[in-house]
Specification:
Elements (H helix, E strand, L loop, with lengths): L3 H5 L1 H25 L1 H10 L5 H21 L3 H19 L7 H27 L10
Helix pairs in contact: 2-4, 3-4, 4-5, 5-6
């Protein structure tokens, strides 16, 4: 009885969760796409192998998969792919354990932010897309 309110709003809350979970990816994926040359340059400066390909993968994952998840399209497999991508981004992009001072602090925040997002994506895999999704149509 206590949780009836949440159950009555289940599908709306899942939709809101999908949107909020992906807003970060869609925003930064769009930034990476619109500034693709700068994205490649940044990845080159960090020593990333195949920076052009890695930048393309980042745009596809963040913008393309991000939009697909907002729409609830192939939700479970794409949420799994995004979870793997986000975990890899945490490990590769935010190795705070190799840093000192404020750089360590900021990268630690981003590392654990990514780990938290992976948790949200795992919940999305379990719950599914909800009623308001292309998967349910």
């Amino acid at each position: 009885m206590r949780y009836t309110l949440f159950e009555n709003w289940r599908d709306q809350l899942i939709l809101l969760a999908r949107i909020l979970l992906m807003v970060l990816f869609v925003k930064f994926g769009l930034d990476k796409m619109l500034g693709f040359t700068a994205t490649v340059t940044n990845m080159t400066s960090t020593g990333m192998p195949l920076p052009g390909l890695m930048a393309l993968i980042a745009v596809v994952m963040e913008l393309g998969v991000g939009i697909a998840l907002v729409l609830g399209f192939y939700t479970r497999p794409l949420a799994l792919a995004m979870a793997i991508y986000t975990l890899a981004a945490a490990l590769i992009g935010h190795p705070y354990w190799n840093m000192e001072g404020m750089e360590r602090f900021y990268n630690m925040i981003n590392f654990y932010k990514n780990i938290s997002i992976v948790g949200g994506l795992l919940l999305l895999i379990v719950t599914g897309p909800g009623k308001y999704s292309l998967d349910k149509r």
